[in-house]
Amino acid sequence: MRVVILGAGYGGIRLAIELERRLHRGPWKGQVVLVDQSPLHQLVTEMHQVAAGSVLSDFAAVPLARILGGKRVAFRQATVTWFDLASHRVRTTQGDLIYDVLVLGLGGEVDYFDLPEPRIPGLRQHAVGIQTMQQANTVQARLQEAVYRYSKEAAKGAKPLMLVIGGGGMTGVEMAGQLADEAAEWRKEYGLSADAIQVTLVEAQERLLPGMHPQIAGYAASVLQRKGVTIRLRTAISRVEPGDPGQASMPGGVIRLVLASGEEIPAGMLIWAGGVRGPSIVATSGLHLDPKGRVAVNGYLQAQGLNEVYALGDCALVLDPRTGQPCPPSARLAVDEAVWLSRYLTKEWVLPFVPHTTGAVISLGRGAAVAVVGRLRFFGRLAYLLKTLITMKYLYSIGGLRLLFYQLRIGVIGKI
Length: 416
Fold this sequence. Notes:
Radius of gyration: 22 Å
CATH class of the largest domain: Alpha Beta
Largest sheet: 6 strands, mixed
Strand content: 25-35%
């Protein structure tokens, strides 16, 4: 059996490792091929820290060679360009791949709400996400330049530099907390006033973290406000336009957010965290997709009508069999799917996949977080420590002590 895994994200890399372990234990015999356009395994859950400049990008980008070294996993660095599912063939920039089993773990893309038609004109052109390392590095570089340029204009009476985050879900909340901490450091570094750099979080719904318990949302809001974040709820952005180039901010001038109410907000940057959709390449696969471009799968993570094609992670629409509702995408869900699928493909497990959706850890910046573990809730520094330990446990699970110590040397300990 030749298993071709597309994508080295949380689900793809864990599935490759689990299948390779079963090659040693037997009796399963097969070949595992992992395909990704990057030689790095990106820790998407840490991208808000990279974007804010709180950690080195090396921390959130683990070389696949360090994970797969010595393992019987054939890695091919390539970009998927076409699917020929009838012939069990995937076309890539490094040639065609034939498979017996195909697993789509291609992750997701920032949803700019412009497919099939733009719902927020100008959003894609003027906002930037933090879904990938490239995007996070872009945000970090632009923030540094914007703050530096603003520091030169502040003495001339320039208006405050407005940094806006669109979307009050987990990504937006984590980005807001981290950015608020860094803004405080920038004000101190450049000798700016307390209101010189302002962080605003905009959410269209009536509270932050809409899918979580109100107590969690309330705690997150209180921590962010204590850090100086302005939270604007029930605030929908209707379009994004170029602003006045005469104001100090990003290269090319500020942007202007036009709200549904008609109000306008000038901003030096808009970091968009309004959601994730399936990768655009999947739209060419011929598979049945939901409106967000995710592959619709059954209880065995199989694409509809194709028993040899599976999907997991952000590119899959997985329904919770207990509620019938879509499972919110997360790193933990992708890992759980990968572990289950490795057992199913090797005939160790025959029952359908049942997601565990009772746990989440949300960082709120330096030394603050909220964690949900079953029915237990943890707040503050204890939750922050728990998040760090979860990251360390994950690194150990994919690379053992050697990889864990490598990441610790980069600076994980300094985050605690």
